[in-house]
Amino acid sequence: MEIKTTTNVQEKTAQLLTALCKGLYEREEATKLALLSAVAGESIFLLGPPGVGKSLIARRLKYAFRDGVSFEYLMSKFSTPDELFGPISIKKLKEDDQYKRITDRYLPSANIVFLDEIWKAGPSIQNALLTILNEKIYRNGDEDMRVNIQGIITASNELPPKNDNLAPIWDRFLIRLEIGAIKQFKNFLNMITDTKEVYADDVDDNLKLTQEEINDWDDLINQIELPAEVLNTIQVVKIKIEQHNATPNQLDNQIHVFDRRWKKIVRLLRTSAFLNGRNEVNLMDCFLMVHCLWGKPSQLDLIKEMVSEAIRKHGYSMAVNLNMLKREITEFEQDVNNEIKVKYTVVEERLLPVQEEYFELLKEENKFEGNLISIKQFKSLQLDEEQITNFYDANGTLVNRLKAKKGTKEYTVEINFNSTHYTYALKTQKVEKTETIYKKPHTIMVQHWEERFQKLKHYIQQQEEKINTDAPTPLQRIEQHLFVDAALSEIVKANMNEVKAVLQQLKLKLEKIQYVYLEG
After folding, report:
1. How confident is the model over 131-165, as pLDDT tens digits?
2. CATH entry 3.40.50.300 includes domain 1-216
3. Model pTM?
């Protein structure tokens, strides 16, 4: 279902992303995620060596906003708060005895902020940044100044050193993305030969986002729904992370994701759904969690595996609650069988094999040697035609070859010895066997079962309809995602198709149960 606004959000966002990514090579994902984080009001951290376009992405992002003001700064260990937040106002200090900064054209007055080599910032800068990242407030003297920063992009060629002082600010960067050199040679050649000025603002003004739009979108994003399959997937990923952290050999590879980050992740997923023109988050949006959960690059593959497995095995499966449905249908089948199936025990006589190869002849008088006949040869005997048959002693040694045929009575053999026919029975054993007969159920019971049948059948039909027609993203559109690789849609499709197949199997099982109690 589409979000009804005066502007087609998905179409406008797609056009804006196309404009922002023009002239960029293998930087499309970073640019798209930067815009997503900015609309969500969050920050993004780019990890990569110098010269791979980190600052370019920040400058291009500025052009996504009408009248956007950007602030860019390269940190060093000598950076001072004056250089980021503005110099002290001498006039205010002299005339009003107030310690305030002139923030115009500095970080507090910008819409888009890019801070390079962020880990070189000193403690005073870090503390001010924390307040800005947390509350969008800058403490200017004795005044709390609300800043209008839409997006903060930070970058470094290294992760933060193991320092408790940097842990809080590292946790504030919701999206974390590695950027490396261009990999495809064709893209590399296009990049070095392209004469387009990538730093120029070539984004159509009609595509740019206004502050009024951002404010309106903020309220609409908060209304985006979180269906059961998404909440279940988030829960499964969280459990997987906890299980990983509890593993003894992973003590040095902990994945720390605290409650605040989970809340921000949900906000990011809602923003993604909104910009894709939906009023519900779907499983494709859930792949964005990969960029939010890792603490170091070595964890990235593990996080991808956790998220993909949660979507592949649990997404719609848990939303439909297949386990509950299977259990109810099994219990229904058992109740029907207990009522209409009457089981009784009969005793029947069966041949008793000897050493798994022979049957034993019951001979009162030993007319000839050999009291064992092979099972295979006994089964080949005919009633009306004799054939040469081997007979063995108790050790399985061949001791005789005589003409024989199957006896007229069951489990007997007729042997021709010296032109005289002798009939011998084979050794048997009595075996108990359970047999079942069906009785006609009472009409009141049938009526009760029919109500139960219709209820389960209706539930299955509801779930099939939800997946086929009312799913957050029908299969034919699932690849059309602005921020997630279309190839990942195969994982979502696999889960959906598996659920559909199971529902079909359960429907067939339910119909068989109905046939049993109606037709017997």
Report:
1. 888 888 998 888 889 998 888 999 999 998 877 67
2. yes
3. 0.72
